[in-house]
Amino acid sequence: MDQLPMCPKCQSDLTYTDGNLMICPMCGHEWTQAEHEAALEAAIVRDVNGNELLNGDTVTVIQEIKLSGASKIKQGTKAKKLTILEQPYQEHDIECTIDGLGRIYLKSFLVKK
User: Protein YjdM N-terminal domain spans which residues (predicted)?
Assistant: First the structure.
């Protein structure tokens, strides 16, 4: 038998099915398989070209990014050791290392694989 997904609201693993609905007895949340699949697809972080980004990837910045102060990240700069953030920080959904700057948060639509 297939493993039922955890509740997207409270993360309980006690979910059960009732017809085509999945139900969480802990919080009462109800959802369908289609809603579950849509949520999984939305959770995938993609670059500007729609390629899926994974932890450890190396990406290229596609446009100049001005940072606070006088510094900036030039177009074409390589960003290494990519980490996908589970909880986005002010709309920044990836963290990576840029030579000369260290670890920095970026938005995935500003990079390409």
Answer: 3-32
In the three-class reduction of DSSP (H, G, I as helix; E, B as strand; rest coil), residue 16 is classed as: strand
Q: Confirm if 82 and 50 have CB atoms less than 8 A apart.
A: no
Among candidate residues 24, 48, 51, 26, the one with its CA nearest the CA of residue 36: 24
Q: In the chain, what are the domain boundaries?
A: 1-43, 59-112
CATH architecture classification, 1-43? Single Sheet (2.20)
pTM score, two decimals?
Answer: 0.68
DSSP string, 41-85: HHTS-B-TTSPBP-TT--EEE-S-EE-STT-EE-TT-EEEEEEEE
Q: Divide the 113 residues of the chain into consecutive groups of 10 and give the mean pLDDT of each group.
A: 81 91 93 87 86 92 87 92 86 90 90 93
